[in-house]
Amino acid sequence: MSETGTLTKLCETADVSEDLPFRAEIDGFGYAIFQAGDQYYVTADLCSHGPGFLSDGFIEGCEVECPFHQGRFDVRTGQPTAPPCEVPIKVWTPVVSDEAIFIDISAGLS
Question: Which residue range is the domain that position 20 belongs to?
Fold first, then answer.
């Protein structure tokens, strides 16, 4: 992981596929990177309901299912889409450049 201006590199685009999310950790915080079609999405990796990592979850389209209690989130917005999850997760708008995925860590949306 490296910083470019205010952007921080999370991974290469080749590290992520529609079937396999990627986990990046920066300063002890986990980020989950997802691909849906030709779009990439970045969320907090830790589920807001329990100790499950979303990067280990099942992804279908733009929805990820947490492996801990099978709650779901929309990776575009961070909003929960199935119980028991009720609290949104933080999301970041990724920037793709030179086949790498970057985010502005300070600009996370919840």
Answer: 3-107
Give the model confidence (pLDDT) of 28-56 as tens digits.
999 999 999 999 999 999 999 989 999 99
CA angle 35, 46, 103 (to 5 degrees): 50
How many separate domains does the chain show? 1
Q: What is the CATH number of the domain that holds 74?
A: 2.102.10.10
Q: Give the pairing type, strands 29-36 and 22-26.
A: antiparallel
Place of tokens 């499950």: 52
Strand order from edge to edge, sheet including 95-97: 3-4, 7-12, 100-103, 95-97
Q: Which pTM does this prediction carry?
A: 0.92
